[in-house]
Design brief:
Chain lengths: ~400, ~400
């Protein structure tokens, strides 16, 4: 199931979750979603993890064949979980954490029929909270993703060719990402957000509202995936904002850089400089104990002071946040938004993405991923932050 | 919300779903998942569609801004759906279809608190069933996807270079797919299956079991996505099975072809010919009224007759099906499996993928997407079906 080397790391994660189980006077947590199975076992498998309040977890595996290790039990159906617990004199859970924000209604009914808990608590929130503060092992995976992500952006100007569409540009960047080790898939929490490997918006398209709750919109290539590039040619006077997700290790980083073709408007240049100013001010304040909402307010105050609030985080449609936690998924806690209740602590990881959409020109701004430490933020996605000319 | 040209098409889809709502004596269907919002409106948006048993649907939209049309109502939260119904004297639904196989438990609780139905029925199954038989409009999108998918496979041999890893080969194929218009994302029904754009397996890696319920396995590049290519070099004596998803139009096609480097074993060649034989026999029998389970049995009988049953659909781990419906998602009805209850009818679309895994050599076989018509199957992914040499 997992290597001997990974065991101490997994024990840290189990202990973190078990602390919350115990604090709620609950008996166990049942995990069945891919990202949380990955978090709790170090790999994706088809099945369930039953984590009691004390002691070691049980791994109930449907697929793949061939996994071995302590407490690895092969099953065909979840009903066999309760059979196993009964046979081994493990008491049925009275109070059970289930991933009720993710597991479907029908799956919930099936699982509660099997385990008959008297009380069900929110396991999605429990694991999300455990995942918010990363372990040293996770931070190293994030640093490694960040290194590859930074390397990708160093390649970006070289793949641009005159006359390219935003899509053609995107395809060459995607290829570079894959050559640098991107796993390709982009994991998002919740059922409503979808994207391919990231988004590239340019010119007028940057101002097209999208149904998805990303920092930027874009028409996309088809009504079945209305976000990002739309196949239009990148022309002089436009900016290109490249916002590719980085998933090089199972842990994501987020990073954006702004490119320009020819001369762009003074407004766009000013807005970009304001993004950098916002980044500097927010990161200076981002210490353990700081409220994420305060960080949002710092950003919004600077945008407003510069008279740019109508372009901040979008123009026709504006995003309601300037940053978001990252990890196995792109949208973890903390959320840097006005009504966020998240408080920073050391080991949290977040992407900060102050951006502006300038009509007819495109989007400008910056995005980096930061690790919160006791003494300040560590940037894991370094690289030139000025507007980079493609000509 | 949708163009005038699309209205007659959407009316067909609404009528199909309303027939099922009426047959169940229900009052309405509430749609909130992306693929079904796309099916019922022709585009993705963030929000809900309330489809009454009779009359036109209501589109409750959170994002993007700027959608217009009949019954388009902007809301901030789903509680406003019941406010709207009350204000407009639309009776609350007594019996309501909800997507209970997809909507999370918590979302179910919220929606049923809002609409207070006395009885909830399975809307996931209702829409899945409606989507199984495609309209002419949908069939044309599938044909268009198939054309691009076939074009992609014509490019495959040209992107191979001596000494490539399976990953490097995959990256160049992915790039060609995108240049031909692939939207990139790969939509799968259910929470447990994940993949990037498709899978390429070669040599020993073809026999590595995967947690996902795809036709083939493979170790993958990382335990966070254990499927497909694993970065090993393609060597003489190996086959490479390329199984890239095709999503060029919002509707997917599925297609695989087998490539070889140098001489491969007689067993592998024989198994490939058996795949073609199975395809021919299954497709000859695939007429409206045929049970999908019977099609599976035809395939298994031929594999067994040839003494190849231990390699059929995998070796260390075998898939339990030889085909699957395709549409907006890659795994729709009908399922071509031994215990499938699906019966073919005209307008269904399925991928047939008889494949074998030959230890040390790799996978061989064929996959095409077919439309069921009154007089037989129409292949939408034509192209050479013999093993194609890469040297």
């Amino acid at each position: 199931m997992y290597s001997v080397q990974l065991l101490p790391e997994l024990q840290l994660r189990w202990a973190k979750m078990q602390e919350s189980i115990q604090a709620a006077d609950a008996d166990a947590l049942l995990i069945s979603t891919n990202v949380n199975l990955y978090y709790a076992s170090g790999r994706i498998f088809l099945g369930y993890i039953y984590l009691p309040a004390n002691g070691k977890p049980y791994f109930f595996v449907k697929r793949p064949v061939g996994l071995e290790g302590e407490n690895v039990i092969y099953i065909r159906k979840p009903e066999q979980i309760s059979e196993y617990l009964t046979e081994h004199n493990i008491p049925m859970p009275q109070t059970l954490f289930l991933e009720i924000d993710s597991v479907s209604y029908n799956e919930y009914i099936r699982l509660t029929n099997i385990l008959s808990p008297k009380k069900v608590l929110n396991g999605t929130a429990l694991i999300r909270s455990a995942r918010t503060v990363k372990t040293d092992y996770e931070l190293n995976l994030i640093r490694k993703s960040g290194q590859q992500h930074s390397a990708l952006y160093r390649h970006v100007p070289a793949v641009y060719q005159e006359g390219m569409t935003d899509l053609e540009f995107s395809i060459e960047i995607e290829r570079q990402a894959r050559l640098l080790g991107s796993l390709g898939i982009f994991r998002v929490f919740g059922p409503t957000m979808e994207i391919f490997m990231g988004s590239i918006v340019s010119g007028e398209n940057a101002d097209t509202p999208s149904p998805y709750d990303f920092g930027l919109g874009g028409e996309g290539l088809d009504p079945s995936l209305p976000v990002g590039c739309n196949g239009s040619i990148i022309k002089p006077g436009m900016t290109v904002l490249v916002d590719m997700g980085g998933n090089f290790t199972g842990y994501m980083t987020d990073m954006s850089r702004t490119y320009s073709l020819g001369n762009i408007s003074e407004l766009a240049v000013k807005a970009h400089q304001t993004s950098l100013e916002i980044q500097e001010a927010v990161i200076a304040a981002a210490l353990p104990g700081t409220a994420a909402a305060d960080l949002y307010n710092i950003g919004m105050r600077i945008a407003t002071k510069e008279g740019l609030e109508n372009y901040f985080m979008g123009h026709r449609q504006q995003a309601g946040f300037i940053g978001h936690g990252v990890g196995i998924e792109i949208n973890e806690a903390p959320v840097i938004a006005p009504r966020s209740k998240d408080i920073l602590s050391a080991g949290m990881v977040f992407a900060l993405e102050p951006k502006f959409v300038i009509p007819h020109v495109g989007a400008v701004g910056i995005e980096n991923t930061f690790i919160v430490t006791e003494t300040g933020c560590e940037k894991v996605t370094p690289g030139t932050e000025e507007i980079i000319s493609l000509t």
